[in-house]
Amino acid sequence: MMQSANGRALYTGVTNNLERRVGEHKEGRGSIFTAKYKCHKLVYFEEFGLIDQAILREKEIKNMTRANKEKLIDTINPDRRDLFEQ
Q1: Rounded CA gap, 35 and 32, in Å?
Q2: Does residue 86 carry a pLDDT above 90?
Q3: Helix, strand, coil percentages in the chain from 3-state DSSP, rounded to 5
Q4: Tens digits of per-residue pLDDT, 9-51?
Q5: Which domain holds residue 52?
Q6: Contact yes or no for 2/10 (Cβ under 8 A)
Q7: Alpha-carbon span 6 to 47, nearest angstrom
Q8: CA–CA gap between residue 86 and residue 71 (Å, rounded)
Q9: E strands within the chain?
Q10: Residue 43 near residue 83, CB atoms below 8 Å
Q11: Half-sphere exposure of 64 toward its Cβ, with a 13 Å CA cutoff?
């Protein structure tokens, strides 16, 4: 999940190359949503062996409430560090 600098916007997506995709978001060319809301901080990610699994999980996360997305992020990143920089 990508988060805006002010923490108000969260973006969930799927990719086969996390490093490339996060780089695109950080440059403002990843998606219209991330460019508009400046979602440039990687705060959560999961890895899957099969794209079908990743797409199913993306749909689950997108259907979560904001509170549940926040709890999910907190399971691995309660300080909201930019995981891309690590």
Answers
A1: 5
A2: no
A3: 50, 10, 40
A4: 999 999 999 999 999 999 998 899 999 999 999 999 999 999 9
A5: 2-85
A6: yes
A7: 26
A8: 21
A9: 2-4, 10-11, 39-42
A10: yes
A11: 19
**6-27 CB burial, b ≥16 within 10 A, e <16:** eeeebbbbbbeeeeebbebbbe
pTM of the prediction? 0.93
Q: Which pair of tokens denotes residue 32?
A: 């219209």
Q: What is the pLDDT of residues 62-84, one digit of tens each?
A: 999 999 999 999 999 999 999 99
Pairwise CA distance, residues 8 & 21, whole Å = 21
pLDDT at 1: 97
For the chain, what is the domain count?
1
Give the chain's end-to-end CA distance (angstroms, integer).
15
pLDDT value at position 76? 97
